[in-house]
Structures are given as structure tokens and as C-alpha cells.
Amino acid sequence: METVTTLEDIRTFETRSGNTRFVLRDADGNEYTTFRQEIGQRASDLKGTRVRITYHEDQRGQYRNVYVDGVERIEATPAESTDTDVQEAAWRTAVEAAPWLVGDPQTQVEPDELYEKLKPFEERVAQDIEQGRDPTTDDE
């Protein structure tokens, strides 16, 4: 089995026999265990990132153990990239501001005219977001 999640925490425990047990916790609170040093070290390196965890379950009496078979980083998809998030947020802001940018809400505006009014505003909002400026203050 596998899951894609954010790796929130990795804890290590020394067993009575001297082995190290690694316990990985994901963003949903699920825990995965491994005794394999290379997997535990890899997980430690990936803490706080999106990962794919492959695992198997083992039922022993009333206990269900979840063992890690592998962990690997998941690269951000275009939909998850920062640039896309900035552009999306800027367009949402421009659309929300449209009634104030266009004028009288009772008059119909042609699509090209609407775009010409919204696009410069969207670009400015995106620029402010990227530069980390607070858009509610006028510091220019």
C-alpha cells in the first residue's frame, strides 16, 4: 500500500536488543514503523516535505503494526507551485475587486474591456504578493 502525505515527525527509539526503531508520523497523525536504518535516515532528511510512503500492515493479536517499505519525496505539481498560487490569488482578488474597478454595476461591460481593466490590477497584486508587501498599506 502507499499514501501521499506530508511527513510531520520522525522519532527514534532504541530497543532492548540495541536496534533502532524509527516511527514516522504523517500530517493525518498516522504512524509508520521501520527498523531499517536507510529508510529511517531518508525519512529524517524528508521531514516536513510531501512524500510517498509505501508500507504494509501486520496484524498481531489485537495490534495492527504498520511497517514502512520506502519513503520518497514528491515534487510539487504545477498546481502546487508557488507561482500558480500567486497568480490564482491575484486573479481571485482582481475578480473580487471588479465591481470597483469597472464602475457602475448596472451597466454591462464587454469581456475585452473587463479584461483590460482587471489584468493590470491582477499583475500588480501578484507583484505585491511576490515581494511580500501588505496590499492594505500604501508605502510607495
Characterize the structure shown.
A hairpin with a 5-residue loop joins β1 (about 1-15) and β2. The longest helix has 21 residues, at about 80-100. This protein has three helices and five strands, in the order βββαββαα. The model has no long low-confidence stretch (mean pLDDT about 85). By secondary structure, it is α+β, with helices and mostly antiparallel strands. Helices cover about 35% and strands about 35% of the residues. α2 (about 80-100) crosses α3 (about 110-130). It folds into two domains: about 1-75, OB fold (Dihydrolipoamide Acetyltransferase, E2P) (Beta Barrel); about 80-130, no CATH class. About 10% of the residues are buried.
Overall domain count: 2
Shape by Cα distribution:
elongated
Major sheet: arrangement of strands:
3-2-1-4-5
Largest sheet: 5 strands, antiparallel
Supply the helix-strand structural class: alpha+beta
Helices and strands in order:
Layout: E1 2-14, E2 20-26, E3 31-34, H1 37-45, E4 50-60, E5 63-73, H2 82-102, H3 111-131
Helix pairs in contact: 2-3
Précis, in short:
The chain is of the alpha+beta class and 140 residues long.
Fill in the keyword field for this structure.
140 residues; alpha+beta; OB fold (Dihydrolipoamide Acetyltransferase, E2P); 2 domains; five-stranded antiparallel beta sheet; 5 strands; elongated
